[in-house]
Amino acid sequence: MTPLADALRTLTVDLGDRGYPIHIGTGLLSNPDAILPYLAGQQVMIVTNETIAPLYLETLAQQLPEELDVQTCILPDGEQYKTIEQVNRIWGALLEAGFNRRCTLIALGGGVIGDMAGYAAASYQRGVAFIQVPTTLLAQVDSSVGGKTGVNHPLGKNMVGAFWQPRAVLVDIDSLATLPDREMSAGLAEVIKYGLIRDEVFLSWLEANMEALRAHDARALAEAIARSCQIKADIVAEDETEQDVRALLNLGHTFGHAIEAHQGYGNWLHGEAIGAGMSMAATLSRRLGWIDDAALSRSLQVIESAGLPLKAPLGMQRDDFLGPMRRDKKNTGSRLRLVLLRELGDACISDETPISLLNDLLDHYPRA
Ligand SMILES: NC(=O)c1ccc[n+]([C@@H]2O[C@H](COP(=O)([O-])OP(=O)(O)OC[C@H]3O[C@@H](n4cnc5c(N)ncnc54)[C@H](O)[C@@H]3O)[C@@H](O)[C@H]2O)c1
Ligand SMILES: [Zn+2]
After folding, report:
1. Using CA atoms, how far apart are residues 184 and 215, in angstroms rounded to an integer?
2. pLDDT tens for residues 46-58?
3. Confidence (pLDDT) at 328
4. 186 in ligand 1 pocket by Cβ < 6 Å?
């Protein structure tokens, strides 16, 4: 795939004839060459939300030539709206516009919009083209890459969905200028995750560059996004449908999803729950004797330096963790499977944690 002229970096998700580029750069939203090559036909539906529409919708829409049939679908903002009802609204908008199987959906927004627009694309007329234009750091380093799409169900987060790969991922770093600090920190949780599971050198780089990242330094952001996307792309290419190694991307997520469910979607941000969840996973790895004190303290420090919580929510009991943890998609038999650290930069999936050790962690882990 040819690199886009003003993209700082172009990576490839290597999935054979379903492979696609990730362009990371500045000014991509206002560059028609970034988007036009990936449209499937004449019909385009931009899916976004009420917060992002006033900021970026017009800029993006202006890049699309007049002869195209361009429609927009603007959804309410929030994790609590990541539901099948909202996907139904996207399907409705596509049908009302008379869109056929050669239409293209463009997801303009964070992970919530990307997951829902992706699922609408996976299912509309059994599958149409879609393009990810992620506008949060979390979406730029994680959710827009790899083709996991779907919605929440009242009984569980992300419990309904499909694997459906985009045709391209366009990461415009400029769009982070309007992102609130809390959302930046949440995105950094997933960035730290990549260092912890796969790349100790990247983790050291993050320790040295955390301030620059939090200050929106474009060069540092481009580097962090590119390295994160490269790790994710490699893992997805190896194991697209999460039979084994892709599950490593869930470091901190088993604990984190329980926190999100307990607090009600949207009260703790996903990345915040993952920050505390990774701290819990690192602590458990220490108690198993897998990592040493120095590695544990580096893990906790880098999470804290990103502005993320280390402690679990006040009032959350052992069973509030265990209920959702037992429904986790990683479990195959009766034993809980957890992503743990063998050392910094090397994670594994293990069902060997003695239940007494897990109970002790859940009972005594600090709360705030
Ligand atoms: N599919 C995957 O592989 C995958 C991976 C990780 C997370 N996820 C999912 O992603 C979701 C979380 O994504 P998220 O953190 O992007 O949350 P989000 O989509 O809710 O976005 C966070 C907030 O930022 C706003 N926003 C987005 N871009 C903005 C911008 N440029 N300027 C100002 N505000 C902006 C949004 O409107 C929202 O209020 C969760 O539902 C999670 O399950 C999916
Ligand atoms: Zn996540």
Report:
1. 10
2. 999 999 999 999 9
3. 75
4. yes
| CA 76, chain centre distance (Å) | 19
Q: E-assigned strands of 98-186?
A: 104-109, 129-134, 148-153, 156-163, 168-172
Give the nearest ligand 1 atom to 139 CA: 16
* pLDDT band, very low/low/confident/very high, at 156 (cuts 50, 70, 90): confident
Q: What is the 3-state secondary structure (H, E, C) of 184-199?
A: HHHHHHHHHHHHHHHC
Beta-sheet strands, E only, within 6-165: 7-13, 20-25, 43-49, 69-75, 104-109, 129-134, 148-153, 156-163
Question: Ligand 1: which atom is nearest the Cα of residue 79?
Answer: 20
Mean pLDDT of 285-296: 98
pLDDT tens-digit map of 311-328: 999 999 999 999 988 877
pLDDT digits (tens, 9 = 90+) for 203-239: 999 999 999 999 999 999 999 999 999 999 999 999 9
Task: Retrieve residue 72's tokens.
Answer: 């927009």
Banded model confidence at residue 6, pLDDT cuts 50, 70, 90: low
User: Residue type for 228, please?
Assistant: S
Q: Looking at the annotation, which residues are catalytic?
A: 126, 148, 190, 232, 242, 246, 250, 253, 257, 270
* 364 CB-near residues (< 8 Å, 6+ apart): none
Which ligand 1 atom is nearest residue 136's CA?
28
Distance 235 CA to ligand 2 centre (A): 15
Token readout for 37 is: 């090559």
What is the DSSP code (8-state) at residue 27? S
Q: Say yes or no to pLDDT of 285 above 80.
A: yes
- As a whole number of Å, the end-to-end CA separation of the chain is 48
Minimal-distance CA residue to ligand 1 atom 21: 110
Q: In 3D, which of 284, 60, 271, 311 has the Cα closest to residue 186?
A: 271
Looking up tokens 């983790």 gives: 203
How far apart are alpha carbons 202 and 243 in whole angstroms?
A: 26
Token digits of residue 275: 């920050």
2: Cβ–Cβ under 8 A, 6 or more apart, which residues? none
Residue 346: in which H helix or E strand, if any? Answer: strand 346-350
Pairing of strands 43-49, 338-343: unpaired
DSSP bridge pairs for 9: 24
